[in-house]
Amino acid sequence: MKVRLFEIFTSIEGEGIFYGTKTLFVRLAGCPFSCFYCDTVPALPIDSGNEYSINDACKLIDSKLKNKTYKVNFTGGEPLMQHEAVLELAKHVKLKNIPTYLESSCFDFGRFVSLMPYMDYIKIEFKTLDSKFVEPKNYDHILKNELMCLQNSIQLKKKSYIKILISSYTTKLEFDKLLDAIFSISCINNISGFVLQPVYGSGAPNLNKLLQFYDLVYTYYKEVRVIPQLHKFIDVP
Ligand code: SF4
User: Fold this and answer.
1) With contact defined as beta carbons under 8 Å apart, do 129 and 173 qualify?
2) pLDDT of residue 235 exceeding 80
3) pLDDT at residue 29, rounded to an integer
């Protein structure tokens, strides 16, 4: 089996509930989506980056692991595109007793479930339709998969949290619909966080919109946070 890695590096988490913590990032090549705010566009083609055997990729991970690296983050692109390879790499990391972290849009429940035995932390990135990540006709199918992944992750007692990008185009109507779907999950109170991440640059939301959307989530879940990407403010990858 082969794997295409776009890059692998140690840095500081710039998003989500692990903001500011030290991590080895394993960025998988390939993503089937086209979010207008994507900041990893060069990693979207499945033939981007470099190809490795699983054995060589494990050696690369070992060589890049620095002292006191507290977790390994499988990100992308979209890691579920190469789920079989991610499973092998995560297994390798778990043998070292280092926690593993999956950042995914969770577009495929079957692929997601296959990784669960080897993942500790899960970020599920829900998308609103305005992100243009898929054709509108495919949106409901992907959302259904995302919801099943969230439910499964919580039931398995993974440290699970939700992230949603907010742009100036995100409508209250659409956001409300998404929240209704998310908070209809029975075990939803066991999530470990709900992060609203403002889009940066063109399409950035204003403060009023962020506050309005914060209040909408707060109605359901008090620990909601608005967290901008650290990497837009300090010069690290
Ligand atoms: S799902 Fe993530 S990696 Fe894929 S296009 Fe959207 S933001 Fe970029």
Assistant:
1) no
2) no
3) 98
Half-sphere exposure of 147 (CA within 13 A, CB side): 15
Average pLDDT, the chain: 95
* Minimum-distance ligand 1 atom for the alpha carbon of 37: 7
- Of 36, 78, 104, 231, best ligand 1 pocket probe by most atoms within 8 Å of the beta carbon: 78
Rounded distance from Cα 222 to ligand 1 centre (Å): 27
What would the 3-class secondary structure string for 81-107 be?
A: HHHHHHHHHHHHHHCCCCCEEEEECCC
The residue ranges of every structural domain in the chain are: 2-232
pLDDT at 223 over 90: yes
Query: Interhelix angle for 136-155 vs 172-182, to 10°?
Result: 40
Gap from CA of 17 to ligand 1 centroid (Å): 19
Q: How far is it, in rounded angstroms, from Cα 233 to Cα 216?
A: 27
Q: Which residues pair with 124 in a beta bridge?
A: 104, 162
Å from CA of 145 to ligand 1 middle: 16
pLDDT interval class at 122 (50, 70, 90)? very high
**Confidence category of residue 144, pLDDT binned at 50, 70, 90:** very high
CATH architecture of 2-232: Alpha-Beta Barrel (3.20)
Distance separating alpha carbons of residues 113 and 108, to the nearest angstrom: 9
pLDDT number for residue 237: 72
Are the CB atoms for 181 and 145 separated by under 8 Å?
no
- Whether ligand 1 lies within 6 angstroms of the CB of 145 is answered as no
How far, in Å, are 31, 51, 79, 88, 109 from residue 47 at the CA level? 10, 8, 14, 20, 24
